[in-house]
Design brief:
Layout (H helix, E strand, L loop, with lengths): L10 H17 L8 H12 L3 H17 L4 H18 L2 H17 L3 H17 L3 H17 L3 H13 L6 H18 L2 H12 L10 H9 L3 H11 L5 H18 L2 H16 L4 H82 L4 H33 L9 H14 L1 H10 L5 H12 L4 H8 L3 H13 L3
């Protein structure tokens, strides 16, 4: 990295160089004067970069801001952007890294609900990645968060799952697992199990913050209150605030049990002072900012999805309308084509009959020509009679109120053409009054205007609901010229 001639790099190359140099400096524990190099990379990736590069740039700028410069507030802002990108792109590896960092930051702010939120997200991500070691770590983090919120039963559930996976844990994790499960058993008064895990914990050669607290719980369960008080007081010297608070709670209970009301009262006051100072103003503001960031992000995602859905719906409506118009045009074309063909057939039949009569009267018969004319005459008459026969049968079914829901498109067209021949004036009236009607709409008009059926009868014949009949009438109404 040191040998790279940055002056010869393109803008894209400089952005990648800034990202790589920051990663290398962080992983090799080298000093960085400031975060300007990686900030230049982020500025470029915000305009041109893909999600992978942009998300890593935000992640590592957050890391160096937090661990190198102590700028936790700005670090959280970077982590939240990286979180958003990771979830949008479903990048499990990145999600795992970001969730760990955000859980750690919220631990610094003493915010158990947010610690739990990111610990559970980390658990889901590590499960998706089949990372058993990270699963153990996330289970331990979940259990710790529940314990900090005094939800012992939930903490116990998660820590037991962690114990089931202890073969995947490193020595540091084992120490934390054994100490927590020993503490929970001691708190529950199960001294045998507590001592069992306390012994396992000691074998890890760890000096944990709860070293004096667990034996104090055990002595209390055994009725040795004075020894328990002595151990709890030693636990107060620990640097961990959670452990000190638990020691204070235990001491207040022990003083009550020994009848020392004055000491119990003073200890409770110390607990209240601790709770009042539990969150700093800055920490509360940071927690509120994280929540608002998530709310804004969710609102933007929702609006984006709604816009996309609206566009898709509009496109579907356009497609459906076009399909209906095309179908109507096609049906109308078929009906007119059939009507035109029948008219042509009728006209040609008349011409053929005239020719045949003239040849017979003049005595100039040509056997071959006469046979051809008669064959064409019979073919056209058969075609007309077939169409009108089907139309007649369909019209008879309507008159008898028989259901025609199963009729084919051809049968419906024959019905329309039959009525056009049967009621020429009414047909001409419909042609003048309406435009672009489909075959189904003409059939509806036959039942409504010609046969004068009511809505219930029409619904029964078409096998539809009455609301569909009203809808059909409204669509026909819109087709009026």
């Amino acid at each position: 990295m040191a040998k790279v001639d940055t002056g010869s790099l393109t803008e894209s190359g400089k952005a990648e160089y800034g990202l790589l140099k920051t990663i290398v400096a962080y992983k090799t524990h080298r000093q960085l004067g400031n975060d300007s190099l990686i900030s230049v990379s982020i500025a470029y990736y915000n305009r041109y970069g893909d999600d992978w590069l942009r998300s890593r740039a935000y992640l590592y700028r957050g890391v160096i801001r937090m661990y190198r410069f102590g700028n936790i507030i700005d670090a959280v802002r970077d982590f939240k952007v990286a979180e958003y990108i990771s979830e949008r792109s479903d990048d499990e590896e990145l999600k795992s890294q970001v969730y760990q960092l955000l859980a750690h930051v919220n631990y610094y702010f003493r915010n158990p609900p947010s610690i739990l939120k990111y610990s559970q997200k980390l658990l889901d991500s590590s499960t998706e990645l089949h990372d058993s070691t990270m699963m153990v770590k996330s289970l331990l983090m979940c259990a710790t968060a529940y314990a900090d919120m005094d939800q012992t039963d939930s903490a116990y559930t998660y820590i037991k799952k962690g114990i089931d996976l202890e073969r995947h844990a490193n020595m540091s994790m084992l120490s934390d697992l054994y100490s927590m499960v020993a503490e929970i058993y001691a708190e529950m008064g199960e001294t045998i199990k507590a001592e069992e895990y306390l012994h396992k914990w000691k074998q890890t050669d760890s000096t944990h913050t709860t070293w004096y607290l667990i034996p104090a719980y055990i002595r209390k369960a055994q009725g040795e209150y004075e020894k328990a008080i002595k151990l709890a007081k030693m636990g107060l010297e620990d640097g961990d605030q959670r452990t000190r608070r638990k020691c204070l709670l235990l001491l207040s209970e022990l003083y009550e049990l020994t009848g020392d009301q004055k000491q119990a009262s003073e200890t409770r006051m110390l607990i209240h002072e601790y709770d009042d100072l539990k969150y700093t103003t800055q920490a509360l503001q940071m927690v509120d900012w994280q929540q608002k960031f998530d709310e804004v992000r969710q609102s933007e995602d929702f609006n984006s999805r709604m816009t996309w859905m609206q566009r898709l719906t509009a496109a579907l409506i356009v497609v459906i309308v076009l399909a209906i118009l095309i179908a109507a045009w096609w049906h109308r074309r078929k009906v007119r084509k059939l009507s035109f063909r029948l008219d042509e057939d009728a006209k040609r039949i008349s011409e053929l009959r005239t020719k045949i009569e003239l040849q017979e009267k003049s005595g100039q018969e040509n056997g071959q020509e006469m046979a051809r004319l008669k064959e064409e005459l019979e073919s056209r008459m058969e075609r007309i009679s077939g169409t009108l026969l089907i139309g007649t049968q369909m019209f008879n079914q309507l008159q008898q109120h028989q259901c025609i829901a199963g009729a084919t498109a051809k049968e419906m067209q024959c019905l329309v053409e039959y009525v056009a021949q049967l009621r020429p004036k009414r047909w001409q009236e419909w042609e003048r009054k309406y435009s672009a009607l489909s075959t189904a709409q003409y059939v509806f008009l036959i039942m409504q205007d010609d046969l004068h059926f009511d809505d219930e009868s029409i619904a029964t014949i078409l096998d539809v609901k009455r609301v569909s009949v009203r809808s059909m009438r409204a669509r026909i109404k819109k087709s009026e010229r």
